[in-house]
Amino acid sequence: MKEYNDTIRLGCTKKSVCVGFDEYAIPYISAQTDYDAWFTLGFLQGKNRTFQLEYYKRQANGELAEAFGEKFIPADKLMRTIGLSRIAKKYLSHLDDDVYEMLNAFSNGINYGIDYRDQYPENEFEILNFAPSKYSIQMFFLFNYFLLSR
């Protein structure tokens, strides 16, 4: 199993954050602020699960064919007809300020993790010849609706 003992200085957190990993590579975040905890969780997701996030985003938005070929057009048509993206957009205007801040920190962390990963591209992106897209707060709702509809 891969060792997780790197020190990374993010420079984007408000205070110091410590992340430890158990023997199964499960992260444990110790942060002094909620923003820093959510940002760091997002960073770890963006850094370690970039391709999975991109795949789910494309699947939920009906954009698989753009990356994986025309055999995915029927699935894309179905997802665009269902319109999870439109539903997710509507929820953004109903968020409490605290929830918005939490999701904003999380999505900023994901994007920082994706940018960090650009230094070490994943094989999937090289093989398929495309780059991951940026994450937004809307994606949080999109993923939830998508995963709940399965």
What is the end-to-end distance?
A: 31 Å
Order of helices and strands: EEHHHHHHHH
CATH architecture: Orthogonal Bundle
Shape: globular
Provide the domain count: 1
CATH class: Mainly Alpha
Q: How helix-rich are the residues, as a percent range?
A: 55-70%
β-strand percent reads 5-15%
Residue stretches low in confidence (pLDDT < 50, at least 5 long) are: none
Biggest sheet overview:
2 strands, antiparallel
Considering the protein shown, what is the CATH homologous superfamily?
Answer: Penicillin Amidohydrolase, domain 1
Mean pLDDT: 86
Q: Roughly how many Å is the radius of gyration?
A: 17 Å
Quickly count the helices: 8
Strand order of the largest sheet: 1-2
Give a concise summary.
The chain has 8 helices and 2 strands.
Task: Note down, in words, how this protein is organized.
It contains 8 helices and 2 strands; from the N terminus they run E-E-H-H-H-H-H-H-H-H. With about 150 residues, the protein is mainly α. It has one domain: Penicillin Amidohydrolase, domain 1. Helix 2 crosses helix 8. The longest helix has 21 residues. The protein starts with 16 loop residues before the first strand and ends with a helix. About 30% of the residues are buried.
